[in-house]
User: Fold this.
Amino acid sequence: MRNINISKICLSLAAALLLVGIASAQDSHIKEPNVTGHAEAGKPLYYRYCWGCHGARGDGNGENAPYVVPAPRNFVQATFKCRSTPTGTLPQDQDLYNTLVRGFNFTNMPSWAALTAQNRADLVAFIKTFSPRWKTEKPGDPIPIPAEPKLTVDSIKHGGELFQKLECWKCHGQEGRGDGPSASTLTDSNDQPIRPFNFTTSNRSKCGRTNQDLYRIFMTGVDGTPMPSFADVVKPEDAWDLVHYLRTLQYNNPSPELALWLSTKEGHDIVEAKKVYNTNTGSGVKP
Amino acid sequence: MRKSHVVMAGFAMLAASAVAMAGPAGGTVSGKVTYEGTPAKMKPIDMSKEPSCAKMYTTPPVAETVVTGPGNALGDVVVYVSAGAPDEAAPSTAAIFTQKGCRYIPHILAFQVNQELKISNEDQTSHNIHPLPKLNREWNKSQPPGTPPISEKYDKSEFIPVKCNIHPWMHGNFAVLKNSHYAVTPDTGAFSLANLPPGKYTITAWQESYGEQTQEVTISGSETKTVNFVFKAKPY
Amino acid sequence: MERWSPRRGKDSLARVCTIFGYVLFVFAILLVDCRPAAAIPAFARKYGMPCSACHLAWPMLSPFGQQFKDNGYQMGNERDAPIFQQAAYWPVTFRMTPYWHRESTDKAQVDGPSGPGSAEAQSTVHGFDWSGLDFHVAGTVANNYSFYILPSSDNTGAFHFESVWARLDNVFGSSWVNIKLGKFELDNLLSEKRILTLSSNGGFYQNYHFQPLVAPGISESLYTFGIGDNQVGLEWMGHSKNDRTRVSAALLSSTDGQPGLPTSSSYDGFFAASQAFEWGSFGLQRVGAFAYLGQASTYFAQNLTTTTPVGTDLNGVPVTSTATAGLPGTGTGLQSFRRYGLVGQFYIKKFDITPMYFHGSDSAFLGTNTASNTPLPAGGRSPSWNGALFESHYTLSPQLIFINRYELIRMSQQAFSTNPGNLGNIDSLVFGVRYYPFINARAGFAYHAEYAIVRQRGASPVTATDLTNSSLLFGFDFDF
Assistant:
């Protein structure tokens, strides 16, 4: 076939670079960087990357904001969706930093992982200058998250009972498709229509992909939206059961919880009933 | 003759001191809040999405955006001293806000800065209690039936709309005020703000749909001054 | 791309009286008509982001924009599929530059006392002009299926396809497997398609297109290749999720991106890898390497003789013209050529510099225009050269960028030992500045000013002495 000698130098160089890359990859681990952010350094970054949506004054009224749904965050109001702190409190710096790394699924807010850690820390510091709340209030204390207990079928079933008892289905629907009886009338705190999360679309919810993120979402609430905090009414161990159950609603995304659920007859029948087979317009048709 | 003067003076002093010992000498501002024009007709609330609440009513209740009474009286108006009185520490009793029949009772709850607010759910369905302040912190908590009351407080004076996201017809208001001189008019439209020390005061009346009006009043002693508010009703 | 096609086959060297110096000049203009990529407002419109987010100063990419590109022009928030856009959204951007320019050469071939084309003279032309037009049609057809079509015209409106590809992104859900098929720009860390200069002499990278002179006045004619030319083939590309590590390998047809398989059925390979790391508060630094392993045919196994009627002579006898050319696809006598490089991208706050070391070598047959089934001429050797490039920018703000580039190419071995040692060596210096009066998410505009000067040793058309060309350009570069 080809009469090419693959240069040993090239290949080894490429391999070396690859190894270096894998070793130092900062892929999915979001850890507190050992950098201090400075608002003055964050200012030119904000006006390069962020101001188009978030606005010159940080109030979410950027030039592109009218065409962006959901609307960009208003930093002057300082109500943040994804926090590790209780509802109504300011988030920790780490929460804001994590948001920059992760982005928001199903929104126009991308992941800024391509920026350097210093850039992101500077941006967090600058964003905090938009609201006077940061000067008068301290951020909340992160809610304690106990270690995740062992995954069992009983845990999933108990989570299902909680889903009924706490009336999550009123907004999220019985199958978690975001089609509950109250779903169509939901508005966010700016009176804009908003839909509840549809668990069947993705396992990447607004505030992250891990079980801890899911735990935090309903234990701290998603401020600025109809999603309330259940911290006062759900015990931590019950909360983990609910997390396990919610993962079984995400039947399009493999997870240990879904695998365990499918291994039971009851779970298998429930999940299979949701699927549509033998369509003639291609694979991966998800109802 | 002089003797009677002395007696009279003594009597007067006794009376004065009796009055002084009876409590802080205070004037009263009282009056009535009325409307002119034709207010919008309040629509009945459709609670069919929540049968456990709908069945509590023989006829559907109406929205409480504008509450009227006989003689063009306007109810649910918060009348309070907005200037002239010093800020007061919050009382130790809690202000009670109840969710019952998928409505808020009272529709408008007035209480003080840093006063404890106690919210309870007496229905058989979950509510989420979601006040929407602009100056205070916004929080949103779920309250299933049978759970203990939620305790909160606000540290800034503000009028805060309250809603339940699950039941979109539920509307209420918090009036967080700086001092204890406030009243919420019943459907007679009458109010009375008592125990006002002498001074110049600004009295404000606030209605959630018609906005607010202010009037100035001066109290010099323990008289009662009448202050009436007339709001222009909106037909929509 | 419309190119000057070297005549293949058995034309004698004497017949190929190439006016290399002038051709280099024209060559350069034609090259610059392969318009570079641009800020793509179609992307900005789709995602509501201003140009400055993806571009340090368009068309130059920022690390965020590079990640967006490597991800298949997707933001990765599960809203990339076209179903999430208004039905009226159409992923097309156009880019155009009207300008005034001045081109100068110190030795153009002119008529002289010894006859036509026998002398050299200084030549300067200047006036108003315009560039070619690019249509960038790019985006996603579905989640993780991306595409790019770039119909590009020269300034007469004659179109060719500069890029035509579709890509499977994040295969198996992994950012390490992306497969691209079609005609595309090689995964060069220093992207010529995102070059910040536009002039005839400064609007391309000398190192990316250099082919050595065979002898004074004679250029390589058996093959055409530039690592900056878009090539056609299949590319695997992988990157870490935050785009710090990037690797690619491509299998390409040995046609320099021309369609229709004009030469042979041989394939080339291209490999590139780079690693970025954060350096304190200075920013992202990246180092990489690339290698192009190419081969070209030196003669055709079958030749076509075509006879074309031209007209009739004075006696009414038909006159024909006969031409012999290789039958496409039957190129044989493959000989290899190599291009290697090391690249760095270093950011120090607002200043960034991209140094590059480049090495190229051709087989002796390619270097001496010899078919490999004939003996190599006496003294014929495999030419090789080393080159360096230093491109630096000062980005005062997203609205103002200063550009400087210095390139040099030094032959380390000439094709013939009789060639002067520095025959074909190039030095090039470019200065530019771009000012963007507004940054929004819909369209872009830049005031562009540039000066470039290039000297090539022994390249003048008649006397084979040093040739110096320069360009001065002022223009409005805009896209929508």
In short: The first strand of chain B starts at residue 27 and ends at 36.
